[in-house]
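Regression check, pyridoxal-5'-phosphate case 312:
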Amino acid sequence: MRQNFHFHCFYVRSLHRWQQLYDRAGASVLQPVHHTSLDHHRLTLHIKRDDLLHASISGNKWRKLKYVLRQALSDEAAGLLSFGGAWSNHLHALAAAGHALGVPTVGIVRGEPEYAANPTLTDARAWGMTLDFVDRQTYRRRHDADFLAALALKYPGFYIIPEGGSCPLALPGVAELWRELPDCDQLILPVASGGTLAGLLSARPASTHVTGYAVLKGKDWLADTIHELYSPAADDSGWQLRLEHHGGGYAKCRAEDRGAIAALSEALAVPLEPVYSGKALLGLFRDIEAGRYPSGSRLIFLHTGGLQGARS
Ligand SMILES: Cc1ncc(COP(=O)(O)O)c(C=O)c1O
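Current build output:
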């Protein structure tokens, strides 16, 4: 009884910390940018700097994790467990969030234990995350019921969050972003597991079209994943995926693209990394130069953070 009371007080305190954490952050900056290609095509572009939302729970992770964390705390979970690669922005943010809330975290990491020394996982360990390395074959089973049941036995009472934090509870936190935006014709963002795009679609104003630049070889499964997360997206013609700008696949970036991303970063005065925001912004500029965006359009690009991964 006494122990139950003690645990209950612990979660009340953690929920209070959650509230303070999210109350403290205001809206992220909306930065106007200038570029000759924009002038040439008579477009305006602002960058929504979600990379600046929080020092360590960066970008879309801040928004995607918001209600997932609250749910886990309300459920009085023993800890938070999720999945990712050795440079995962999601595991990095989850470890930081667990540390801020005083809740234990576990990362199921794809790869060899030697990766524990890289900057991403060094930070995660410093924030108290337990790293559990699995080989690629085992990692592929991260959605299987029997694998998840085995993890639940190994880490009893832990709240299990899917890879990338993409789950239905990620959507409302992302949807709140619209409150911070002025009217625009296009909102543009990088897409990987689809949770951020699904969250935006769940509250899309009718006057704004959403374009997601896939940073991996998406084909049909990516749209299906988004429909699974938010089923009305299947009948919504107000969004599209651009699948041609993956640059060879997830986390791949050709030398000439790296150079082009660095040049864009300098010209726009915005820090970029080559896996998400840099790759998607490069795709956007190539589409602008190909005349894909109607003259006079007001564009907003969502910088989803992930700059910590650029230390690789
Ligand atoms: C920095 C960054 N930007 C964008 C994405 C893509 O977001 P989503 O997986 O919700 O499509 C991710 C994660 O996967 C990310 O880490």
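Comparison notes: The first helix runs from residue 2 to 24. The domain at 18-56+167-311 is CATH 3.40.50.1100 (Rossmann fold). No diff flagged against the previous build.
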